[in-house]
Amino acid sequence: MKAFVLDRYEKKSTLRLADLPMPDLRNDEVLVEVHAAGVNLLDAKIRDGEFKLFLPYRLPIVLGHDVAGVVVKVGPQVRQFKVGDEVYARPDDLRIGSFAEYLPVRESSLALKPQGLTMEEAASIPLVGLTAWQALVEKAGLEKGQKVFIQAGSGGVGTFAIQLARHLGAIVATTTSASSIALVKRLGADVVVDYRQQDFSDVLRDYDVVLNSQDGRTLQKSLGVLKPGGKLISISGPPDPDFARAVHAPWFVKPIMRLLSAQIRRKANQRDVRYAFLFMRADGAQLRAITQLIEAGAIVPVIDRIFPFEATNDAMAYVESGRAKGKVVIKLR
Known about the structure:
Mean pLDDT: 96
Number of strands: 16
CATH architecture of the largest domain: Alpha-Beta Complex
Oligomer: single chain
CATH superfamily of the largest domain: Medium-chain alcohol dehydrogenases, catalytic domain
Structural class: alpha/beta
């Protein structure tokens, strides 16, 4: 099969198009013929080596954290899926690889593709959908009437998280550029800050939840918009001790994570605010809940561009540019 391969950790490097043998299928996995694959900033961060301390990939590897396609083979322990099913998933860490013609996916991480979506639309959903769900539903417990600030509202996570927060009945604030104000308002944002004209920390006050996806300076300023008892959830770091325990990080990594997050945790405690780092995980049950919202019309995919498979490196570069409004997808079939 053809696949785009990462040979070594290197910033801004390109992936190599290679012919690889068909992947091995474990007993609890299905083999998916990949029709479309979402492209995420996470792929670039793994390529750059940012997560090699706690994600011990053995290079070379195939990147890609979103998949939509058709089941062509099932392992002997699989009960929920059969050959011919149209499915989508965020494959498990250490079993990623959707920038390829075929990908094994664990049954517990898989869901049937939402009815009415194209393969490309389905492939845009899993990583950002699960990120938003695990941040707003699982970690924040966001409730009707609460106020949530979702940074970078026109990005992949932002466009999904705004819609999910609106569905939950929250009051939603976001940041974006002037060209995307209409988009985020259409998705459900109540308060929109043009980050080129205003500083969100001068505008927003007494929020219950902040979903941070930006740099360390933005993370620090986010503390100031939260009310006492509020929750600051960051998907861009720094990792905290709870995360180190959750991923069973090696003993020498745990104190590093504790140190990296010490300052923000201390400042959060001083303000009576809780800080948590989120590195989303594969979860088929949550993806099925997301499917119900999509089929009910509560959430719609937002896609910026679809690239052909052979232009995978161009798709990666476009995601890294920060210009995408919504998701970027690779089409294989």
